[in-house]
Amino acid sequence: MTGKKFTSTVAGASILITAVGLIGKGLGLIREIVFANFFGLNTQFDLYLVGAVLPITINTVILYLGQNYFIPSYNKTKIETPEKTRAFTNSSFWIFSLFGLLLAAILFYLSGPIVNLYLHDSSSFEFISTLNVFRIFLLTIPLSAAYSILAAFLQSEFEFRSPAMSQLLLNVAVILLVVIFSNKIGVYTIPIGYIAGNLLQLIFLLFKAANKIKLNLYMFIKGGNARAIINYSLVITILIESISQIYLLADRYFFNEVQKGGIASLNYASYIYLLPITIISAALSTAIFPSFSLSLHSNIIEDVQKKLDNFFSINLFLFVPISLTLIFYGGIIIRILFQRGEFNSGATQMTFEVLKYYAVSLIFYSSYAVINKLLYGANLVKILLVITVTGCFIKIAANFYLVKDLQQNGLAISTSISYLFFFIAGIGVVLIKLKLKVKYFLKEFSLDIINGFVSYLLAVVLIPESLFPNTFTNGFLKLLIFCASYIFNAKLIRQDVFKLFENAFVNIPLFKNNKI
d(Cα 471, Cα 81) in Å, to the nearest integer? Predict the structure, then answer.
């Protein structure tokens, strides 16, 4: 392992992506703090969230599509016909880019009816504001489509640094524009910032990939490779990724059914909920996916099992305390992050209620991140489509049933129910189709959940309510004791997971040969 490039290993790539992801998500967190300060839970921000939801959802679908379709197909091409990899990459880039441009044009033409679907009982001012946000955001779609293929190509070549670093540019652009121009043009600064950020991302990756690939539109048209790229697998993958992103669309439909600021509270709570997933689980699954794909195509099942067990070990060790923290101490976190400016104590309480219902599924949804990648790598896209469709039906049905009495809390509960279904169904496929074992998951989960609750009870005993009348001080001290206790106990009973972290960091060039 000594001779390997640090970022070509799963552990090394995970650490790199996580480190850059921490910076990126730190900027993303600053972005959300800026949003909360300038807009809070007011109606203007609710309307922005409604207008932005479809373009942002499409961009997310395209990004995942770039990974989940391109990487397995690229690896298959590399193994079977390596001389065609350059043509495959060129064709994929132009197909995604042109499709993104066409989709944006179609959505612009249909923008009025689409926005009216969400704001059927709203005023003309609210309709026009939302329509403008929607139309501005459409310009990001072709940019995201082109970016997704460049990022997936570099990841296929085990070059994780550039795609990870490019994500920082998006948040920087949005933050700067909101801070500088929000007083003049309000929420319109956000979609304009996204356009600027997406453009910077694309230019950055074009520069980084320039010496690895040659993009030529004429060769794509002349070569006629579109039919080879647009195949059954791609169509199924598009369906899976599109349906799996229906959650935000389904929640925004109930704009008139929830409390004022309810959509905004869902936005802030879901951001906190997804933050550790996008930093940790996404980093692990992104780093492990190319390796999974190669091992599965080479039929090295023992290697797949080992990587899956290592993922579960690290993921559970981290996500059990994170989940309990959000459930028991989420109000403190929200207060620290957002309670200023337009975001008052009432907004904190509303957002915390939503966050608790999201957090109950965090352990399972974070674990599903790699199961999803595993099923893609094994080309089980039909089964994955069935799981995705079923989970979304569960989500939508639960929305209609729960929103009447629980409003925005009901929307959060329905999301957690469907995420739990994804995990259970995914585990079932891993057991039956791939013949892999998940008993390691059960063992690690049991150890970590027991440790988590013991640590929570210890914090309750050591810091009783009467000790500090100030609820914020009391809760903050409990949170510190909970974290310290969990790490201390884990050090005693979970030597294996600490060894995984140690092995990863030993291979960081900076730490080799006792340089530090």
Answer: 64
